[in-house]
Amino acid sequence: MKENIYINDHPLIQHKISILRDKNTSTNEFRRLVEEIAMLMGFESLRDLPLCDVEVETPIETCMTPMLAGKKLVIVPVLRAGLGMVSGLTALVPSARIGHIGLYRDETTHEPHEYYCKLPDPISDRTIVVLDPMLATGGSAVAAVNFIKQHGGRNIKFMSIIAAPEGVKRLSEAHPDIQIYIGHLDRELNEDAYICPGLGDAGDRIFGTK
Ligand code: PRP
Ligand code: URA
After folding, report:
1. Which bound ligand lies closest to the C-alpha atom of 200?
2. Which pLDDT value is given to residue 93?
3. Can you give the pLDDT at residue 185?
4. Residue 57 falls within a domain, yes or no?
5. How far apart are CA 40 and CA 132, in angstroms?
6. Quick one: which ligand is closest to 130's CA?
7. How many CB atoms are located within 10 Å of the residue 22 CB?
8. pTM, rounded to two decimals
9. Is 171:158 a contact under the CB 8 Å cutoff?
10. CATH for 187
């Protein structure tokens, strides 16, 4: 794997992903787990956020101590399923700005179609974290990062809970400059471009639409 692709191996994340996969996991629990996994993955993927020393007066003395530096972080969920991960990231960085990109996969061609894009402006000097629980063919991820770059985004991290090798390859080849964080790398795609073993349709399981 390339050095900008991070495959998580934390036991807590692996355990929670296994519960997500179970077809008997309720919508309620599924939603809660997606949020928790996003927070745990976010903790790891934000370890390179810049810091600067500021002066703080403690009850004992005045000291220089590190705080987050630079412009506010931007979180960009890919609709719909990425929405389920947002609260996990805002729990870590409450001041983050939030953009939205709406994409759906055509059921026959599996290619993404855009229906919404609203991003903070300007975005060029901000760290951007794109959220989508599933990286399957990679079409949606590539399109989402394309939009962000067209709007001037440069420092981009992409976070998915489950990925297929095909999607990781497509995304990293199209955008070799971004960092890709994966909760678990699955085996392959099936003929309907679903991830195997996967967890089914993430949007439907988060929102209870099937
Ligand atoms: C799912 C998922 C990704 C996309 C991944 O969304 O949340 O956005 O599929 O597939 P890809 O890597 O092959 O592009 P979907 O299109 O089902 O829309 P939804 O979130 O609105 O259900
Ligand atoms: N989108 C999903 O929600 N699940 C898959 O397995 C593939 C794409």
Report:
1. 2
2. 97
3. 98
4. no
5. 15
6. 1
7. 11
8. 0.97
9. yes
10. 3.40.50.2020
